Amino acid sequence: MYGLSRRKRWPVRRRFLLPVPREVDMLKIHYSLDSELHNEILEIPAPAELNIQVRNLVLRTKKGALINKGDILAEAPSPFGGAYHASACGKVMKVNYHHMTIKCSDSETSVEPLDVQSMGTGKELLRTLQGLGVHVAPLSGRADVLIINGMNPEPGISAAQQILKDGGEYLKAGLELARKLITPGRTVLAVAKGDKSAIPGAETVGVKAKYPSSLDALVVRAVTGKEFPSDTKVISVMDLYDLGRVAVSGQPITDTIMTIAGRNYRVPLGTPIKHLLQTLDLPVASTDIVVLGGPFQGESVYSLDEGVKKTDYGLFIIPASQFPAVQDAPCINCGECVLQCPARVQPHLISRYAEYERFEQAEKHGLNSCFECGLCSFNCFSRRPLLQYIRFAKAQLQASGHGEQA
Ligand code: SF4
Ligand code: SF4
Description:
Layout: E1 42-43, E2 49-53, E3 58-59, E4 66-67, E5 72-75, E6 83-85, E7 90-95, E8 99-104, H1 123-131, E9 145-149, H2 159-166, H3 168-182, E10 186-192, E11 203-207, H4 216-224, E12 232-236, H5 237-249, E13 255-260, E14 263-268, H6 273-279, E15 289-292, E16 299-300, E17 314-318, H7 336-340, H8 347-355, H9 359-364, H10 375-379, H11 386-399
Parallel strand pairs: 1-14, 9-10, 9-12, 10-11, 13-17
Antiparallel strand pairs: 2-8, 3-5, 4-7, 5-6, 7-8, 13-14, 15-16, 15-17
Helix pairs in contact: 3-5, 8-11
Bound molecules: iron/sulfur cluster (2 copies).
One iron/sulfur cluster (SF4) binds next to helix 7 and helix 8.
């Protein structure tokens, strides 16, 4: 098992520095996880069409089917893989290996709710929650310590902070259900230092609000003082909120909370990015980079028809002039990615194995210890897409049945 980084930094004079081209006015990105909240969670209206990513999923509907809100569309085949549900009524118009397109109708019919809260604590409850789209990996099996990760996941995203402020009823219901399943002796809410948020039944602990301290493994170490303790489980405040909403409503998860231009919105899953941009009147130039997720872990989208997924907590538009393009340039062995990596793996090495499709070698050198924090890619002087190579290798191994199951 690879550990968490405590490496000493080299003195600046020993680090290999490449000049930044004059025409690139570098994006001034900060590592702070503090954000100002501007309002309540605002609703994004349902789009005319939903675009659901179904690659590597098992389809549960087909072209031409009429669906209600909450109907199951697809499931991940892995043991903890969740179910994907329709966020609006409509008709399945197109299905291919990558996407399912649904033309939305005006109907508001939803699936029948399930009485989740009165279920026992056994496997039936877990299976039911999984079927309703809940991320059940942190809920399976008991633990002595349950940590709720209430940190904003990345700089510029304030979804966690907003949920802590506005999600009281659902967080309480989610925690009740989580504690019923995990039966922890100690429950901790980890928040940014200075944040006064609280959830009844959990002690609040402050964690340094600087990325990557919001990563689960680093939050666990900050709270317990241990690396990967076997008696500890961690659940994000977003997942706890979803669990609470499922518990209260009995309905599946069909939306996500996203930070867009500094404000938080409830977005139906599968909403195309172009619908968000039009609704919020956000202009995008043809050379801009649109990123789903955060500035470190997010991925630039190749089409504005791309639909929003449950784990997308942010949308960013980055002008091309502010960021040097990622490219398949050779590694110059500067070592910066190794210094940055909080998982203490060698990103330059595992990404090169991935690039040449030697996935088993990548796995042997710590591929699965990577947290996908994105710091290696962000700081690579050659602008190599290290995180993308790492994700590619993980996806290929998973598809071939050899990788770690989600
Ligand atoms: S994304 Fe890169 S820096 Fe982050 S844990 Fe993985 S290899 Fe390390
Ligand atoms: S991958 Fe990038 S940051 Fe890492 S050693 Fe190579 S050039 Fe340096």
